[in-house]
Every structure is written in structure tokens, then in C-alpha cells.
């Protein structure tokens, strides 16, 4: 036994002194001690575990412990605060000449640099996918938003395992990583509590998430998650607003990190929903802008243009692009239209200023901890141009215009006094949106022109960027943020993450511009594409397609052949900053050269197949737990099921059957609902009587109601709807039955054409967030009996 023990000890000694192949380290502290740290090579993540460096004997007295060193970023690496707002074009922020004060963005710009040729993809989640991966949006699977995903690599809305995010890279290099606000980069068909969660923020490298999953959310009653758990922090809190809540949560998180591990750098990704519709600022901020937009959109545009020249954020020779013929000039409007449209802009401006104020609180919290000097702050105003999804008239309910409909001004005036409150889900006229994209043409969704893709961006790092208040005009894109962060932190882009070889980072670092305002652009080529509108930039030139239909028509018009049916334009940006002088007719050879370059770039980055459909893609079948199912059965109380995992009644015939037991004293409460105040349906008992209510996007409500209250005991309630389809938004006939007897029968002229509200859920036995009819009940309106079985049967 003695000989065996000696051999055993000898083997252990060999293990203790073996060479650590995982090193490539900068170790601090006594190796093996609890306080030892190390940086890593970072090309292969996670870092291979180091060899044990101590000694192991037969007992602890004759052994030496050894702790693996904690992984930390390179010495001096800054904290990172990455901020991006929503649906705000180049002319929105006062920092870039807009008429809306943005002091937090001003603060970053004055401490660092303003970039005047920084670009997005023209749509929200595609821009966000490009931002966090450093790859083009088609390379990251986000050619469009997830709700329009199709089964092609560039359009499936899956950020694949070969596209590790900046959160994943920084986390595995020792950063504390967190995400606050809007997500919209998880496939819409994976929002439920069933997961999988690898495409949620916590599965993509962000250790903490506090925000909403979709493209937007009601700011008063949000569809909100903490990590992967749905939460309701607004319940019982009058005056609650998500924008402030997100800032509060981020500030608390940063303070907690500082208290627990003050030396650990953080990466905070702060992306509030503002200023995407619904425009939901607090009344305090709305009051600040009363009367500020009575001058109208044309005069405001002139003011912004003059401010931009004064600030030097556009060249002195820039021309203001012409006002489009199909948008009215302010002076042509009647008094009610002017009053309504001015109110829309007041609320939008309030939302811009309010969100900037809350962003400023986050920045100040970092300063209060003494960490701002060594924090790289990147503040991007907007993930695309200002949104045209409010239509030419604006709307008190965004769902209406998304569905391709409008409300007359006279009907909208009924909401004038509550515009921006929880009674509305509002958006503004596209004429304001066009003006807020000054000096450019077009808006959000239009990737071919800078009105859709040019964003104001400021970047500061006081410990490193010394040209405080400087302006940079190099041409850059959101994919350039990841390599900039990596260079700033001294971290390499990994070639393998979690055993998967990585796509190369497609962006280029912007750090070269920090010390040299005159440095030539490191980005020489960049393609753009969205819904068939496309452009190609190369060395100061850009070729762009002319949009065949304006985005505010939401794809409801007949579109030309997407490959050969588009007209092209050509601009020399070194002489024509605003894309005002089309040279296509004068320089056909140059245009052809640029078109060929687009084809090569598009093939390289998964842009094909081109597709200019919009509404049709909303109805494309996608993978989910409900794919291919037509029968759904539930019992008891269930809430919070997202629409992707629930029975979808849009444009279909369906039957809802509820087997219930009514208690003594009578039945009351919700049986099943999808949607809420701004559209949807509810099947419930009201004072004992069965009611099926269909809320047509808050414009009309259709009601089926029994005459008699149900007696205590078991009953079977059925609502059967036969659609007049096929087609978008067809009407139909609904029949309500109690225990086999018809109690109500009504034909309705139309139904919701494409989408139920995306920030509401499918609930059984209760109603969360907002109700479909405030005059009947208030949420949560729980059913006081027992639901033995709730079945939804859909017709193919």
C-alpha cells in the first residue's frame, strides 16, 4: 500500500506542475489565492479551465489548495453604457438641430463626439440585431421584424449560435451584463414561458433583463418581463410609467453592482421603448410642450434645417429636400386638423424629452458613483427614421393604422384631451415624421434613403476621447458599434463561442476617428435593404431605389416586380449631403456599377430572396408550439400566454366552448380573452349573463348577450363564429348558445384584418392588463366559478 500511495502522490505532483495551455493570461494577485484574477485570450469562449496549480495529498494537512483565477477584462477597460431610443430620425433631437430639447444627449455630445453620418437598417429589430452582433441584419437573421419572419436564413428572426452578441462576448470576458427596455430580438414564436430561452436576452449573454419582448408596449400597463418571468409592477401604483421604471431598475442594478463588486466593469444596454408608438409620456411632460407646434410641420422643418446648419451637423451647402406632393402643407389644413395634429406632435415631443430625461438619470447615477470618467457612453437617437406608421392622419390607436385603416379627424378629436394617456395608444401624422427626418427624404421602413436610416449618435469616454464637443463625419453603421466596444475594452472578437465557430464581425471599429476628425472613413461600402427598398453606399456615392409606394400605406397597394420593377437614383454624397440631386440619368455607367455592387453585397450577406410584401408576411406560418394545431383545450385559470402560443382567430371561423360551474349567488368574471382596450375579444359572465364582446380596434364593439342569468350549477356555453372569408378582415355571423339553446345571433361587417394587440395575452379565467370593455368590468375580473374545460376550435 505504501508503494501505491507513493505512486499516487507522484501522479498528483505531475498534475500540479503541468503547463496551463489555457493561459495567455495576465494574472494578478497570488496564483491560486481567492483574490487572483486573470484576463484571457478570448478567441475561444468559454475560456478552457486552467490546470489545478496546488497539491493534493492523502489528507488536507499535506495538500495545498488552489483557486482558479477569476476572469476579468483587460486592465483599464471601461464600463459600457449603450443607449438607443426608438423611431427617431435625424431631425428629432435638439443635439442634431431638432426643436425638442435633449439635454442628456447634449451632455454626451459635449463630453465627446457627435457623428453626423451614422446609419441604421430602417426598421427596429433588424437594427437591434445588427447593433448587438456586429453583423448585418440579414446575416443575423433579421431581414425584417420577427412578426414577418419567413423561412430563409436572412429572414428567420433567429440570431444563430454563430452570431454571438456583444453581451455574450463581454460576459465571458468578465463584464457584468444587463439589458433594460425593448427586446424585439427574440423570435415572436418563442415568447412564452415554455421557452426555449436561448434566444431571450438571458440566453444571449445578458445576465439580467428587465423589459418587454415585442416591438412596443403600453407604457402604463406593459407586457413586462424580469429575466424570463412575467411581472406586473404597475399594479397598485397610480401614475406608473414604464420609461421611469426602466430607468429606476437600471439605476438600482448599477448601484447593486457597485456595492457588490465595485471593480467589476459593467455593460448596460439601455433601450427604452420611446419614441415608438404608443406615445405615452407623463402629463407633466405633455404640459411642457403645449402650443410648441402650432407653427406646423413645414415651418418646423425650416427651423430644424437652420438649426442644423448653425450647429454644423450638416454641411453649409446642404439643400433641404422638397416637401412631397402627397403630404398636405400646413397652411392648407382646416382649424380642427391643425389643432389635432399639433396635439399629436406635442405628445410625441413630450415622449422624446421625457425619455431623454430618464436616460439622463441613468448617466447621472454612473457619475454619482464616480465611474463616468471611465465609461464609454454610446447614445444613438433612434433605431430608424421617424415612423410613418401613424398614417397621414395620425391615430389614437396604433393598431388601426398597422392594419391599414384610418380614423377621420373629427372622430380623433374625441380623444384630444386624453391623447397620450392610458385611454389611447397614439401615433402622429406621417407629415410630422417626414419633417422630423430633416433634411432628408422618407421615413422609417425606407432603407433606400437617409430619412429611414440616418441617426444622430454621440459617443463619450472622458478618460480616452479628448476632443470634447467634436463633430465626426465618417460614414458608419450600427454594425460598427460592436468592434468599437471590443477595441475600447481590449477584447478580441472570438473565433469560437460555446463550441461553435463564429461568423466574422462585419463591422469596423470607429475608434480611429476619436483623435482625427479628418481621418477617411474606415467603412467604404454598406448595403441597405428593407421590404424591397434598397441602396448601396460606396466611397462617397450611393445608389438607391425609388420607393414604389409610401410606407404609410402599409403594403396595401399593388407592388411592382421586386427585382426588375424599381426605378433607381444616384447621389454623390461628398457634394450632396441630403440626397437632393439625382444623377442617375446623367451617369448611367456609374449607376450600373453601383447596382452590380449591390448584387454582390446582397449575395454575401443573405439578402436574397428579395420580398416587398408587408401584410402578407404577417400571416406567414411560423414554427411555434401551436403550429399546425386547430384545437386548444384549457381548464382552470391560466394567464399570460402570448399570441404566438395561443389560438389565433384572425380571418378564420372558430368555436369557443366553455364548460363551467356557476356558484351559489350567481356567476361573474372572464372565461377567456385575447386583447384588450385597443382590440380583441372577451367571453365572460356579467351579472350572471353570458356575454361575448368583439372589440374592433376600439372603433366599434359588437356584442352578443344572453337574456337570463345562469342558475347555479353546470352549464355549457358556446360562441360559434362563421367567417365570410377568405380574405383580410372579413365579417361573419356569431351565435351564442347556452346549454344548446341559441340566445343571441348577430352578423358583423368586419373583423380585425391582421393582428390582435401584440402587448396583450390570451387569458383563461382572468383578464390581465386592459379589458375589452371598460363599461362592463375592470381587470383582472376573475371568474368566480369553476372552468372545467375551455376549448377553442379553429377552422382551417
Q: Can you put this structure into words, describing what you see?
A:
Its EC number is 3.1.6.-. Residues 24-40 have a biased composition (Polar residues). Residues 24-43 are annotated as: Disordered. Residues 78-491 form the Sulfatase N-terminal domain. The chain has 796 residues and is α+β, with helices and mostly antiparallel strands. The protein has 3 domains: 2-60, no CATH class; 79-604, Alkaline Phosphatase, subunit A, CATH 3.40.720; 631-794, Sandwich (Jelly Rolls). The strands form 6 sheets. Strands 5, 6, 7, 8, 9, 10, 11, 12, 13, 14 and 15 form an 11-stranded mixed β-sheet that branches. Strands 22-33-24-29-30-31 form a 6-stranded antiparallel β-sheet, with no helix packed on it. A 6-stranded antiparallel β-sheet has the order 23-32-25-26-27-28, with no helix packed on it. The N and C termini lie far apart (76 Å).
Which labels suit this protein?
single chain, alpha+beta, 3 domains, 11-stranded mixed beta sheet, 6-stranded antiparallel beta sheet, disordered N terminus, hydrolase activity
Describe the structure concisely for a colleague.
Residues 78-491 form the Sulfatase N-terminal domain. The chain has 796 residues and is α+β, with helices and mostly antiparallel strands.
Number of strands: 33
* Largest beta-sheet details: 11 strands, mixed
CATH architecture classification of the largest domain: 3-Layer(aba) Sandwich
Q: How large is the radius of gyration?
A: 28 Å
Based on Cα principal axes, name the global outline: globular
The H-level CATH homologous superfamily of the largest domain, spelled out, is Alkaline Phosphatase, subunit A
CATH topology of the largest domain: Alkaline Phosphatase, subunit A
Helix-and-strand structural type: alpha+beta
| Percent range of helical residues | 10-25%
Strand content: 15-25%
Number of helices: 15
The CA-CA distance between the termini, in Å, is: 76 Å
**CATH level-1 class of the largest domain:** Alpha Beta
* Residue-averaged pLDDT: 95
Which parts are unreliable, with pLDDT below 50 for 5 consecutive residues or more? 1-24
Pfam family, one: Sulfatase
Biased composition (Polar residues): 24-40
Signal peptide: 1-24
InterPro entries: Alkaline_phosphatase_core_sf (IPR017850), Sulfatase (IPR050738), Sulfatase_CS (IPR024607), Sulfatase_N (IPR000917)
Amino acid at each position: 500500500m505504501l508503494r501505491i500511495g507513493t505512486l499516487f502522490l507522484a501522479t498528483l505532483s505531475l498534475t500540479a506542475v503541468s503547463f496551463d495551455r489555457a493561459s495567455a493570461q495576465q494574472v494578478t494577485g497570488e496564483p491560486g489565492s481567492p483574490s487572483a484574477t486573470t484576463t484571457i485570450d478570448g478567441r475561444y469562449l468559454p475560456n478552457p479551465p486552467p490546470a489545478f496549480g496546488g497539491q493534493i495529498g492523502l489528507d488536507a494537512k499535506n495538500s495545498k489548495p488552489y483557486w482558479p483565477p477569476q476572469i476579468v477584462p483587460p486592465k483599464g477597460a471601461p464600463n459600457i453604457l449603450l443607449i438607443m431610443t426608438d423611431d427617431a430620425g435625424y431631425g428629432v433631437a435638439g443635439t442634431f438641430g431638432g426643436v425638442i430639447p435633449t439635454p442628456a444627449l447634449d451632455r454626451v455630445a459635449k463630453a465627446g463626439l457627435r457623428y453626423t453620418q451614422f446609419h441604421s437598417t430602417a426598421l427596429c429589430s433588424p437594427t437591434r440585431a445588427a447593433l448587438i452582433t456586429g453583423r448585418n441584419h440579414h446575416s443575423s437573421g433579421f431581414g425584417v421584424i420577427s412578426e414577418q419572419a419567413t423561412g430563409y436564413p436572412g429572414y428567420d428572426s433567429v440570431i444563430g449560435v454563430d452570431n454571438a452578441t456583444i453581451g455574450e462576448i463581454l460576459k465571458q470576458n468578465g463584464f457584468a451584463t444587463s439589458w433594460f427596455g425593448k427586446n424585439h430580438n427574440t423570435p415572436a414564436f418563442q415568447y412564452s414561458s415554455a421557452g426555449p430561452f436561448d434566444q431571450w436576452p438571458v440566453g444571449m449573454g445578458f445576465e439580467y433583463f428587465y423589459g418587454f419582448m415585442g416591438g412596443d408596449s403600453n407604457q402604463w400597463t406593459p407586457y413586462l418581463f424580469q429575466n424570463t418571468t412575467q411581472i406586473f409592477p404597475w399594479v397598485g401604483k397610480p401614475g406608473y410609467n414604464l420609461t421611469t421604471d426602466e430607468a429606476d431598475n437600471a439605476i438600482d442594478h448599477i448601484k447593486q453592482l457597485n456595492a457588490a463588486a465595485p471593480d467589476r466593469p459593467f455593460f448596460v444596454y439601455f433601450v427604452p421603448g420611446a419614441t415608438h408608438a404608443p406615445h405615452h409620456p407623463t402629463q407633466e411632460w405633455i404640459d411642457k410642450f403645449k402650443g410648441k407646434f402650432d407653427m406646423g410641420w413645414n415651418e418646423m422643418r425650416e427651423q430644424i434645417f437652420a438649426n442644423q446648419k448653425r450647429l454644423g451637423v450638416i454641411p453649409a451647402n446642404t439643400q433641404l429636400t422638397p416637401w412631397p406632393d402627397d403630404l398636405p402643407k400646413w397652411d392648407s389644413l382646416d382649424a380642427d386638423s391643425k389643432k389635432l395634429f399639433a396635439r399629436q406632435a406635442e405628445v410625441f415631443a413630450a415622449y422624446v424629452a421625457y425619455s431623454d430625461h430618464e436616460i439622463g438619470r441613468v448617466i447621472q447615477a454612473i457619475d454619482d458613483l464616480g465611474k463616468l470618467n471611465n465609461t464609454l457612453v454610446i447614445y444613438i437617437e433612434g433605431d430608424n427614421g421617424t415612423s410613418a406608421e401613424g398614417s397621414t392622419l395620425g391615430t389614437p390607436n396604433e393598431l388601426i393604422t398597422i392594419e391599414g385603416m384610418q380614423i377621420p379627424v373629427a372622430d380623433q378629436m374625441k380623444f384630444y384631451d386624453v391623447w397620450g394617456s392610458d385611454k389611447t395608444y397614439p401615433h402622429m401624422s406621417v407629415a410630422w415624421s417626414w419633417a422630423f427626418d430633416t433634411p432628408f427624404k422618407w421615413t422609417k421602413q425606407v432603407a433606400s434613403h437617409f430619412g429611414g436610416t440616418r441617426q444622430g449618435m454621440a459617443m463619450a469616454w472622458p478618460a480616452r476621447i479628448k476632443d470634447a464637443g467634436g463633430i465626426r463625419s465618417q460614414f458608419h453603421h450600427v454594425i460598427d458599434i460592436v468592434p468599437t466596444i471590443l477595441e475600447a475594452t481590449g477584447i478580441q472578437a472570438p473565433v469560437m463561442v460555446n463550441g461553435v465557430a463564429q461568423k466574422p464581425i462585419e463591422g469596423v471599429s470607429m475608434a480611429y476617428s476619436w483623435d482625427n476628425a479628418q481621418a477617411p472613413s474606415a467603412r467604404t461600402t454598406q448595403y441597405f435593404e428593407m421590404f424591397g427598398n434598397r441602396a448601396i453606399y460606396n466611397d462617397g456615392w450611393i445608389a438607391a431605389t425609388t420607393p414604389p409606394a409610401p410606407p404609410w400605406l402599409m403594403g396595401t397597394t399593388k407592388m411592382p416586380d421586386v427585382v426588375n420593377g424599381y426605378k433607381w437614383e444616384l447621389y454623390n454624397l461628398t457634394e450632396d449631403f441630403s440626397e437632393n440631386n439625382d444623377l442617375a440619368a446623367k451617369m448611367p455607367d456609374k449607376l450600373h456599377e453601383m447596382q452590380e455592387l449591390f448584387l454582390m453585397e446582397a449575395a454575401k450577406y443573405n439578402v436574397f430572396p428579395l420580398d416587398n410584401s408587408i401584410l402578407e408576411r404577417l400571416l406567414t406560418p411560423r414554427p411555434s408550439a401551436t403550429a399546425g394545431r386547430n384545437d386548444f383545450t384549457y381548464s382552470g385559470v391560466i394567464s399570460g400566454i402570448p399570441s404566438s402560443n395561443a389560438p389565433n382567430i384572425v380571418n378564420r371561423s372558430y368555436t369557443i366552448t366553455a364548460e363551467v360551474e356557476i356558484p351559489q349567488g350567481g356567476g361573474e368574471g372572464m372565461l377567456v380573452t385575447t386583447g384588450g382596450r385597443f382590440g380583441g375579444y372577451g367571453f365572460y359572465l356579467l351579472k350572471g349573463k353570458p356575454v361575448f364582446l368583439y372589440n374592433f380596434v376600439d372603433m366599434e364593439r359588437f356584442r352578443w348577450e344572453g337574456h337570463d342569468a345562469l342558475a347555479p350549477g353546470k352549464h355549457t356555453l358556446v360562441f360559434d363564429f362563421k367567417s365570410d372569408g377568405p380574405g383580410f378582415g372579413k365579417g361573419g355571423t356569431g351565435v351564442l348558445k347556452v346549454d344548446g339553446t341559441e340566445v343571441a345571433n348577430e352578423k358583423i361587417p368586419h373583423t380585425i384584418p391582421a393582428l390582435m394587440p401584440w402587448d396583450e395575452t390570451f387569458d383563461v379565467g382572468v383578464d390581465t392588463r386592459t379589458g375589452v370593455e371598460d363599461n362592463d368590468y375592470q381587470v383582472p375580473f376573475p371568474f368566480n366559478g369553476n372552468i372545467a374545460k375551455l376549448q377553442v376550435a379553429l377552422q382551417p
